[in-house]
Design a protein that fits this description.
mainly alpha; globular; Rossmann fold; DNA polymerase, domain 1; disordered N terminus
Length: 733
């Protein structure tokens, strides 16, 4: 099963082994790479690394037990690391520091912020892999911080900083912008800037903590922090000028906030829907064209998760503008030209940038824009490098872009591209081979397979045995455990189930295996999630099922998820069964099993497992007949819809009401269905051509969607209106 590989945020690693020095000699922390922050006075030198052999732990500081309520010594904090042997002691020290700081008056922590820098630093230090390499220990430390209410402390402290900022602003009475004032205060009011730097250490807890794939902990972190982070970006922090340096006082705070939102989008199951409702796209979008390359890149990649192809309430946009596209490609070009495929300007490695671009390409409206902006030569260059992740992600990107019919010709003609894909298809690295195979299948293999299948329909003697049908489950790998439970339940109910984790591994060509599995399936069960839509392999499966006119019975495994774009159009108004809520899981599962019907039931004497065969013995469906995704049930108690309409299983093109209509009648029909704005686009259509459009809708929905979306320029709500109107043309509906 294809997975939409998540774009990993390589998080900062603070190297704080030296104690902070007095102002004027202190090294400031600036980004030197996407996975570590080094001291700026070491620029050009080898990065700091852990000492080998590791130093012995110092004795616990006396302040923890003597009741003095004094700060932990700075030299102790400088050598502070977490391992399995000292983790309990380290947790005590973290609790002590939080208690020590929260006992202080907030004004004291702002006015004398420099004095407490190391204490704030210690709170974030345990969230870095350099100082705390074991994931289980980082999880325990994060849970301790949350239990000690570090988020509330951060909110109160940040408010105190902003109050001091506004007070100084009122005293001076100048007309400088807030961004200019922060820059000025680095010299005239250093305590405010130092306090903001202390707050950055607290933001690092959110940034690194949000990168953990621990659902309960992540949910607590998200619910406690997301509104605060968005408020900071929207009200208290400001987009920086293009000539701004990373040394600007707000730079690190903005970076921490954007990194946190980006990780929430990537790691938290329902963050995308909630962030869209919270207007996060507008807030984060303010930083897309301002500040350093690092901030622009983080903003664009965070926005890429929030982009939607649904115009509902105008809460999101459909595509990135050309300027942002070209900027991201320039970041990739810079990274490919850099040492170790790393961009010192943006702080990203080339493979990270390609993952971000692939995320942007999920929206069909961005596919052509990316190709026109020049992404293909960069993908070819990446595929020709010797780094497996670059090869894999670039091939995945080409696979994704190939779902646009207009792009396919351009992709095939790109110098060196097809040769690079064929070379990667021979790779011994499974992930690289799978991505290259997928792209080649979409560009060439699917058409060749269909031609061979059609040729074989005239050879009935080759297929004299009735094949065993099955239920095929199409899913994205992150929900595999939930899918396994559904599969086991279906098998207990007597169904034969095809699922990739047990079938494709036995076949030489996984895409051929997928095609045969679809062809031999009684029905396809797409498991709907945000990442399902983002997966090229999942799109390949469900699109091929639509081409083969297979019945669809969708499951939803992600609460609140509503398919949009190509998936929303393909699913249409098909009934789906929501298994995301444990409270009614069983009733919805029972309803789903009823909807499956009896076509894939195992009969006495038949094998339990699906049987792989070379080709399908059935003739192609007669032209003019298309099978709709699913037939409505008489009982709707356990059923959900996108939205509800009464549809029929068979759509016969020859019986359409419109076949004898004149061109004028077609124009009137568009007006009747609130589609008159597109009447010029369909100028020249008579009833016969309108019938052909209806046939295209049901027989090849991918081509239909590309037509109405790209050629006609319809928004989603009008596409749905057109779908419903075309369906009404069928007398059987």
């Amino acid at each position: 099963m294809g997975n939409a590989a998540p774009m990993g945020e390589r998080l900062p690693q603070l190297s704080g082994d030296e104690p902070l020095t007095a102002r004027g000699n202190e090294p400031s922390y600036t980004m030197k790479g996407s996975n570590k922050v080094e001291l700026s006075d070491r620029e050009g030198k080898e990065p700091l690394v852990p000492h080998a052999p590791p130093e012995k732990d110092l004795p616990p500081p006396a302040c923890l037990t003597d009741g003095s309520n004094t700060a932990i010594p700075h030299e102790y904090i400088s050598k502070w690391k977490v391992n399995n042997g000292n983790v309990e002691q380290r947790l005590k020290e973290v609790r002590y520091v939080i208690d020590f700081l929260t006992r202080k008056d907030m004004t004291e922590l702002v006015i004398n912020s420099k004095e407490y820098s190391k204490d704030f630093y210690l709170l974030s230090k345990g969230m870095h892999t350099l100082h705390n390499p074991e994931p289980a220990n980082r999880k325990r430390l994060l849970e301790t911080l949350l239990n000690e209410d570090v988020i509330t402390f951060m909110k109160v402290y940040f408010k105190a900083i902003m109050d001091e900022f506004e007070a100084k602003k009122a005293e001076t009475g100048n007309d400088l912008s807030n961004g200019q004032l922060w820059d000025k205060y680095a010299k005239s009011q250093p305590h405010i800037v130092d306090a903001l730097n202390n707050c950055y250490y607290l933001l690092v807890i959110l940034w690194n903590g949000s990168d953990m794939k621990e659902p309960k902990t992540l949910t607590a972190l998200y619910e406690g922090a997301v509104e605060f982070v968005l408020e900071c970006l929207d009200i208290h922090l400001y987009p920086l000028k293009d000539d701004c340096l990373a040394a600007h006082p707000q730079h690190k705070a903005i970076k921490g906030c954007l990194g946190t939102i980006h990780n929430f989008c990537n790691k938290h199951e329902n963050a995308v829907f909630d962030l869209r409702d919270k207007d996060a796209l507008r807030i984060i979008g303010k930083y897309r064209n301002s500040g350093t390359q690092a901030l622009k890149t983080k903003s664009i990649f965070a926005c890429s998760y929030l982009l939607s192809e649904d115009d509902h309430k105008n809460k999101s946009v459909i595509e990135l503008e050309e300027k942002s596209m070209k900027f991201v490609l320039s970041v990739l070009q810079d990274a490919l030209a850099g040492e170790n495929e790393h961009s010192s300007k943006s702080g990203y490695h080339a493979d990270e940038v390609i993952l971000g671009i692939n995320n942007i390409a999920v929206a069909d409206s961005n596919k052509i824009l990316l190709v026109e902006a020049g992404v293909l030569p960069l993908y070819v260059e990446a595929m020709n490098r010797q780094k497996a992740s670059l090869q894999e992600y670039a091939a995945q990107g080409i696979w994704m872009l190939a779902f646009d019919e207009k792009n396919m010709k351009t992709i095939k003609e790109e110098p060196g591209l097809m040769q690079a894909l064929r070379s990667l298809a021979k790779s011994k690295i499974p992930e690289v081979k799978a991505a290259a195979d997928g792209a080649l299948w979409k560009l060439e293999g699917e058409r060749e397979h269909l031609q061979k299948r059609k040729a074989n329909k005239d050879m009935p003697t080759k297929f004299n045995t009735k094949k065993l049908s099955h239920i095929m489950i199409s899913y994205q790998w992150e929900v595999q455990e939930q899918v396994k439970k559904v599969r086991e339940r279906l098998r207990k109910e007597g169904y034969r189930v095809w699922i990739d984790y047990e079938r494709m591994s036995k076949c030489g060509n996984t895409l051929e295996a997928m095609a045969r599995a679809v062809e031999n399936a009684a029905l396809l069960v797409p498991v709907l999630t945000e990442k399902y839509k983002a997966s090229a392999a999942c799109r390949q499966e469900i699109s091929y099922a639509a081409r083969m006119q297979k019945k669809l019975v969708p499951l939803r495994m992600q609460a609140k998820y509503r398919p949009d774009g190509w998936l929303g159009l393909l699913i249409g108004d098909t009934f789906f069964y929501d298994l995301s809520n444990p409270g009614d899981y069983e009733s919805k599962l029972v309803g789903f099993i009823k909807a499956v019907g009896g076509d894939a039931k195992i009969k006495p004497g038949e094998p339990v497992n699906p049987v792989d065969v070379e080709e399908d013995e059935e003739d192609l469906k007669p032209q003019g007949t298309a099978v709709m995704p699913a037939q409505p049930l008489t009982s709707g108690a356990d059923i959900d819809q996108f939205p509800s309409t009464n549809i029929k299983t068979i759509f016969n093109v020859t019986r359409l009401r419109c076949t004898s209509w004149t061109k004028e009648r077609v124009v009137e029909w568009f007006k009747q269905h609130e589609l008159d704005r597109y009447s010029k686009k369909f100028a020249g259509y008579d009833g016969r051509l309108l019938a052909e459009l209806a046939a295209l809708q049901f027989i090849t929905p991918e081509a239909y969607y590309s037509l109405v979306k790209q050629e006609i320029g319809m928004v989603l709500i009008d596409i749905l209106r057109l779908n419903a109107a075309l369906r009404e043309l069928n007398p059987a509906s």
